[in-house]
Amino acid sequence: MSKRALATALAVTALAAVVAMPTAHAAERPAFQLPVPCGETWVATTYAGHLPTYSVDLNHYPGDDTGRPVTASAAGTVTASGASNGWAGTHVRIDHGGGWTTHYGHLDSTAVSVGTTVQAGQMIGRLGNTGNSTGPHLHFEQTLDGVGQPATFDGVGYPYVKRSITSNNCGVPTNPASPAPVSAVGDLTGDGKPDVLARAGTGSGNLYVYPGLGNGKFGTRIDNGGWSSIVQVTGAGDVTGDGRADVLAVEKSTGKLYVYPGGTNGHLGARVDNGAGWNALRTAGSEDLNGDGRGDLLAMETATGNLFLYPGLTNGHFGSRVQIGTNWDSMSVISGAGDLTGDGKNDVAAVEEATGKLFVYPGTGDGKLGARIEAGTNWDSMSSVSGAGDYTGDGKDDIVARQNDGNLYVYPGIGGGKLGARIANGGGWNFDS
To answer: Cβ distance 22 to 38 under 8 Å?
Structure first.
């Protein structure tokens, strides 16, 4: 072997040894998710020489992604936020414990400060084009002890080729501090008052029904057992034809949509299978939108941003979908909202990502929606917004909203698509048990 060949062989051997060396401590990798809102499909790319090693660039497409929400990939503590005075521009770094960190670069703005404890799926900033960036995109890293690691999303390794990935960052990660999804639902307890669903964020992911008391407050919760396999839960009108409100849920592993018939004791009946493919949609149950007296399903197709109405039947299934809107991927929250305009027809509520404004879209009674009404600002501080009836006992339908910090509020409807002064239901709605 020539001296040159020997030197090359030794160099390769030395490099392999370095690569194979263990880190200072092999801490368990957190359950990292795609750092964007639940259900959205983004394109991940990289390139030769991309630094730091194993970095990933993310874009939503099509169009300019500036201002789109960026969310924490896993629960942790913010260690950097704001201007980096370097290539990353405006950035956020999060410490997840055990030496693991994530880094979010080229942001337009940040929504958290240093020292803040964040949950998986919590918005930490908005995508931008700051620092050493040639176009709007999110620069993302997962590191262990300061060394870049091959990225994983929802337990699956990124292959470092251009790839579309749908986010499962749905607020039910394994970290104990993760927030519990909250959804308004009709009467599940048989007392004539609408209730609220809330799901724990860890372990079994227990689903609870909180009975509405008719004064904007809620009573003692009723445990419906473990729902850890579910990624989307929402209240709905009557889809089973028994005169009672039902619950909709999408199963994470199969993408199947199930309808759980509501009872009169706060518990749910045997589920009805509506087939697979629903993990490509962001779903929200609704009271009757098409005037046939049955509960319906709203679904935003993440690949296109199109909004569809699936008419409820009377057997726990849905009829053929009808497209009722476009560009609904610009909304961070979409939900059925009861009658907020006072015209006897059920409406839809949605929060606009770019502005944080809450809009009410009046239902026209035939499955279509009218011109939207602005109902408030700063609603990007809310992680869930939904409505399913009169929670305050004044004869007008209301909104239930859970804030990012775990506080729950009821916003009384006052007619005309507007809302009155909110009623506080305390904190702790990001519980884990």
So the answer is: no
Beta-carbon count within 10 A of 51 CB: 9
User: Are the C-beta atoms of 283 and 309 separated by less than 8 Å?
Assistant: no
Phi-psi region of 405 (alpha: psi -120 to 50; beta: other; left: phi over 0): alpha
What's the Rg (C-alpha) of the chain? 23
Q: Report in angstroms the alpha-carbon separations of 276 from 212, 249, 257, 317, 330.
A: 33, 12, 6, 13, 25
SS3 373: strand
Interval 92-116 mean pLDDT? 93
- Residue 175 pLDDT more than 80? no
Please provide the DSSP assignment of 374-391 as one string.
Answer: EEES-GGGEEEEEEEE-S
Which tokens hold the place of 7?
Answer: 């030197």
Instruction: Give per-residue pLDDT as tens, 351-379.
Output: 987 788 999 999 999 999 999 999 999 99
* Residue 134 Cα distances to 82, 87, 130, 131, angstroms: 19, 11, 9, 9
Residue 258 confidence (pLDDT) = 97
CB 291 within 8 A of CB 366: yes
**Angle at Cα 253 formed by Cα 28 and Cα 58, nearest 5°?**
65
Give the helix, strand, coil percentages of the chain, each rounded to 5.
Answer: 5, 40, 55
- Going by DSSP bridges, is the β-strand pair 272-273/257-261 parallel, antiparallel, or unpaired? antiparallel
Q: What is the pLDDT of residue 23?
A: 36
CA pseudo-torsion sign 161, 165, 169, 174: negative
Residues 6 or more apart whose CB falls under 8 angstroms from that of 20 comprise none
In this structure, what token pair is assigned to residue 234? 């929402």
